[in-house]
Amino acid sequence: MLLPFVISGLALGSVYALSGVGIVVLFRATGVLNLAYGAIGALSALVAWQLIEDGQSPGLAYAVAPALAAVLSGLYGRLLSPLVARRDPLVKAVCTLGFALVLLGFCFWYWSDDPRTLSLPTDEFGWDVGSARVTGTQAFAFLLAVGLTVAAAILLRRSRMGTQMRALAGDREISALLGVRILRVETVAWVVSGAVAGITGLVLADLTRLEAGTLTFLVIASLAAGVVGRFRSIGVTLAGGLAVGLLEGIGGAFTTVAPYRAVAPFAVAVLVILWLQRRSARARRGSTVEIRSAESAATATAHPQPPGDWRRVLWVALALLAGTAVLAVVVPMVADGYWVRVITSAAIFAVPSAGIGLLYGRLGLVSLGQVALLGVGGWVALRLSFATELPFPLVVLLAGAATCLVGIVYGLPALRLSGIDLALVTLMAGGAFQVAFNAAGFPDGGGGFLGRVAGEVQRSMPRPSFAASDSAYFRLTIVCAVLALILVLVHQRRRAGRAWAAIRESEAGALATGIAITRYKLWAFALAAFITGVAGAFLAANSGRLDPIAFRASDSVLLFAVVLIGGAYGLTGAIVAGVMGQILPAVLDSVGINGNLILVVFGIGLMHALITAPRGIGGQLEGLAALLRPKRRDPDPVPEAEPETEAVGAK
Fold first, then answer.
1. Looking at the record, which segments are called Disordered (predicted)?
2. What DSSP string describes 319-352?
């Protein structure tokens, strides 16, 4: 009975293991968590498909595609990776995300996002095992995963190059002193990783589907295998990938859990990270106080502006309100209904961007699940709107409150996690919400807990009577968005902002001054989640219904990238992020330019922000405004008193 699901699970586990082992090999060699691994594989598969479509022999296509992937990966490792080599592992990982966006944008631009089919020669044969059939590609994937694991282990443990790679990952400076040619070793590691990613992409395209977005972000689920192996043990990574795939495959045999079986990799990854962190905490207990500094190389190159006095906060609030008044009058006059809705979306997305900026800019914490929280707010708002007669403002506040509770649960891991561990936990949680949204859907006017209709006409969430038109709803949205930004600004000015600044500089120092670190961290997560939930409610009412495809884990990653480009250290960056994420793609479409090229722009902008402009566009605009601001004249200096001297010989 379970045999077909077991075989399917092992095949899926081979997919996870293939990607996981490839990622771990590069991590052990260079210390870089390569989030572009899937994009490199996707490009390889699409190149092979294109060559075959153009009449080239499949053998040539399957050889050229991985070679091209190796060249691209090597170029990144040679030219860009050294620029962030001394930075925090999180910065290195996010920089590879920029590379992934560049490759993904190119794939979407050249091949579009239509799914295609790539059939390897191994599809032509297979074996019957009981009531199930094992295809040649499934067997090839399993053998490739095992073979790659063995080859990587031999490379790292038995070869001189492998020893140099491990030494380089352990300590770059000492490796250089010992005579390791750093650039050469790193380039070799990137080239090998790229070739493996190219081959993996060919197999994944056959086993899943040939679509750039799917293959690129399949790396998120595949990270679960690397997490199980702690990004150190290649053998455990292989076993972890197979186990996760097996768990997910067997879940399909049970009707009640089948729709949610894809949660398996995300749930396993979160549980493993929390368990390992707990073990590490126990190991450290008794030696030193378990306090970490939130300051890290990830944020050490840029600091948020100091809270400032109330007069400055008042001026910022007045500027926001004045800008809101101008937009509320001008936009409905000069823009048609389409552009009014686009600008409304930009105002909505500026709010979760401010939440990401609050966590990253003020505390150095990375949340890659903010779009999932946006979906939670929208789900609650839709359900309350259809099930009750509550007024719109109360629905919005309740949606924010419910999301706030979820945000506190999100924030609980932050008490012990930071850096890339926290980013992975929030990313996996976002992936779990994505699966839940796909399985349960968003309420559309039906009954029961899920609120889904069956065979009936779907309903749309009503807007308030005073904001029924697009123009009126835009005015309401922009006013509430500005109020949310002012709420964040006021928190930064008051006691919470001072506590966040102290925690960011040094948790030990903050604790010594009596600051409750746990409370203020949860406070930040709760505030960010509340305003994001409110934004989700406005997003639901803007379109009337929500689609699960808009709340993928990859969208959270993309939103985080846009926030870093816009600037995570001030409210200007949140506004810039909303404009870049929503208005810029629409502008490109309107002038006849493929909107997918915006991903290329985002990728280049993200790498530029990480390497040379950590304060982002918003920080640069604020710096320019500071230069243009008239300087305050210093009061007349007090003349120094002349020293009293005594004449020689005078008394």
1. 631-651
2. HHHHHHHHHHHHHHHH--HHHHHHHHHHHHHHHH
Residues 442, 382 contacting (CB under 8 angstroms)? yes
Distance CA 648, CA 435 (A): 92
Instruction: Report d(CA 590, CA 405) in Å as an integer.
Output: 40
Burial class (CB in 10 A: 0-12, 13-18, 19+), 352: buried
d(CA 505, CA 204): 44
The single residue listed with the structure tokens 């060699």 is 29
Model confidence at 296, in pLDDT bands (50, 70, 90)?
A: very low
Class of 2-114+125-278 in CATH: mainly alpha
The closest of 459, 440, 437, 463 to 376, measured between CA atoms, is: 437
Query: Are 15 and 245 a contacting pair, CB within 8 Å?
Result: yes
The rounded distance, in Å, linking the Cα atoms of 412 and 520 is 12
Given the structure tokens 């924030």, which residue do they identify? 411
Helix, strand, coil tally for the chain in percent (to 5):
75, 0, 25
Nearest to 395 by CA among 547, 548, 533: 533
Please, where are the H alpha helices in 463-570? Answer: 470-493, 495-505, 507-512, 517-543, 553-566
Q: Quick one: angle between helices 571-578 and 470-493, nearest 10?
A: 150
425, amino acid identity: V
In one-letter notation, the amino acid at residue 262 is: A
Rounded CA separation 168/171 (Å): 5
Q: What's the CA gap between 328 and 477, in Å, rounded?
A: 10
pLDDT, tens digit, 9 for 90 and up, residues 414-435: 666 666 777 777 888 888 888 8
Instruction: Using the Cα atoms of residue 493, residue 499, residue 501 and residue 502 in order, give the sign of their dihedral.
Output: positive
Q: What is the largest CA-CA distance in the chain?
A: 118
3-state secondary structure of 121: helix
Rounded to the nearest 5°, which phi and psi values hold at 128? -90, 125
Distance CA 73, CA 83 (A): 15
Residue 506, Cβ neighbours under 10 Å: how many?
A: 16
Q: How many CB atoms lie within 10 A of CB 219?
A: 28
DSSP state of 78: I
The pLDDT assigned to 282 comes to 58
**What is the rounded distance in angstroms from the CA atom of residue 374 to the CA atom of residue 530?**
10
Please report the DSSP string for 445-476 in residue order: S-BTTTTB-SSSPPP-PPPPGGG-SHHHHHHH
The Cα-based distances of 199 to 48, 408, 431 in angstroms read 10, 41, 25
Residue boundaries of the structural domains of the chain: 2-114+125-278, 310-552
Count the neighbouring beta carbons within 10 Å of the beta carbon of residue 122.
16
CA distances from 260 to 77, 256, 488 (A): 38, 8, 36
Tokens matching residue 51: 């060559």
Cα 67 from Cα 52, distance rounded (Å): 16
Report the 3 state secondary structure along 226-272: HHHCCCCCHHHHHHHHHHHHHHHHHHCCCCCCHHHHHHHHHHHHHHH
Tell me, what's the pLDDT at 484?
A: 92
Residues 6+ apart with CB under 8 A from 34: 23, 26, 27, 93, 96, 193
**Taking each helix axis from N to C terminus, what angle separates 553-566 and 370-387, rounded to the nearest 10 degrees?**
120
Element (H, E) at 133: strand 132-135
The pTM assigned to this predicted structure is 0.82
- pLDDT tens for each residue of 19-31: 888 888 888 888 8
Cα–Cα nearest to 359, from 291, 307, 423, 273: 423
